[in-house]
Amino acid sequence: MNYTVVVNHEEQYSVWPAATTPPAGWREVGFSGTRDACLAHIATVWTDIRPVSARTAAR
Predict the structure, then answer these.
(1) Residue 35: CB partners within 8 Å, gap ≥ 6?
(2) Quick one: pLDDT at residue 56?
(3) pLDDT by residue (tens digit) across 4-13?
(4) 9 falls within a domain
(5) d(CA 52, CA 38)
(6) Using CB atoms within 10 A of its CB, is residue 54 exposed (0-12), middle (13-18) or buried (19+)?
């Protein structure tokens, strides 16, 4: 099965089946592949797992 990486407005990442539309509030980021490949991609780009609202408030 192929998956795609999705992100929400809080910049939280997830994987979603590529053959389906992401749920409301989530958008594709342009990376797809196996579940493991998608999770590896997320691990490289999502280095601060706090929601963007928490990161902004901490400044």
Answers:
(1) 1, 3, 15
(2) 83
(3) 999 999 999 9
(4) yes
(5) 21
(6) exposed
Give me the number of domains the chain comprises: 1
Q: What are phi and psi of 7, to 5 degrees?
A: -140, 150
> Residue 59 has what pLDDT?
72
CATH number of the structural domain spanning residue 14: 3.90.820.10
Whether pTM > 0.90 for this model: the answer is no
The residues pairing with 8 across neighbouring beta strands, listed in sequence order, are 26
Determine contact, residues 38/32, Cβ cutoff 8 Å. Answer: yes
Q: Residue 21: which domain range?
A: 3-48
Encode pLDDT of 29-45 as tens digits: 999 999 999 999 999 99
